[in-house]
Amino acid sequence: MATIAFIGLGNMGGPMAANLVKAGHKVVAFDLVEASRNQAKADGAGIAESAVGAVKGADVVVTMLPAGKHVLGVWNEVIPVMIKGALIIDSSTIDVESARAAHALAARHGVLSVDAPVSGGTGGAKGATLTFMCGGEENAFAAAKPVLEKMGKKIVHCGGSGAGQAAKICNNMILGISMIAVSEAFALGEKLGLSHQALFDVASTSSGQCWSLTTYCPVPGPVPTSPANNDYKPGFASALMVKDLTLAQDAAKAAGAATPLGKHAQEIYQSFDAAGQGGVDFSGIIKHVRGLAGKA
Ligand code: NAD
Fold it and tell me: Per the database entry, which stretches of residues form a coiled coil (predicted)?
């Protein structure tokens, strides 16, 4: 089994590293936060004193960090001490430009690299059921796949460097927009005297059908497992939706793509976040949409 260095042991990285240990890999982990290091130790990982200490002798390095600047910071530190021909995977959600710069850095040092952001949230991280969207050369992807399979159930090669991040932000832009669309439909239905169940029964089997409706329905009742049934907790925090919609807008500007609904969705989620709702599941946006009545 491979020796794997894991850097960034937060809500996602902690359980992902634990799944690599469970699969039989030797995992050497590092995080800036002591409590996260202690949890990884309890999960069976070895603990290093620094990111550089963790990667020495590793066949594979995985990073799971907040944003592009953290990833570039850590990759700049660790890549020069990695074994030539070893593999580095970044599973954070970051901007496409930083992801491409990170790949270029790895290539200059003879290290294979893959950007592999995830969907599936903390539940997917714990249950090893994440979807990985990967970008990088064919041989790097082939080396990464068996490792990613220990943490996820669907591994997709989307193309060259940065393609995983591109797929992630395009997907989440659809998600942000579609959740607002579904919320507006329920808010309008309520004003028109339509029951939630009636609208769900029709739209879920008609042309309005989408994931935001059928899996993550923003009103309690029709889909018992959706966060709406538990006061919009836990789930995918609205603050993370703002992050992803902002990454999509930055990419759209840089690439010269027109995304007017993506921009509007970003603004709506930013207002929700600014109202102190950043920790609420993103389907809670229906509360904000109802509050716009008479204003928008
Ligand atoms: P988190 O804030 O819980 O964890 C990030 C960890 O990185 C923290 O423990 C922090 O101490 C550590 N860290 C930061 N800089 C470091 C450094 N220089 N060296 C070592 N450790 C460092 O975040 P998370 O929820 O685990 O998310 C991680 C990434 O996954 C983010 O990019 C996020 O957008 C993405 N993501 C999160 C979710 C989710 O539901 N939480 C879902 C999909 C994708």
Answer: none
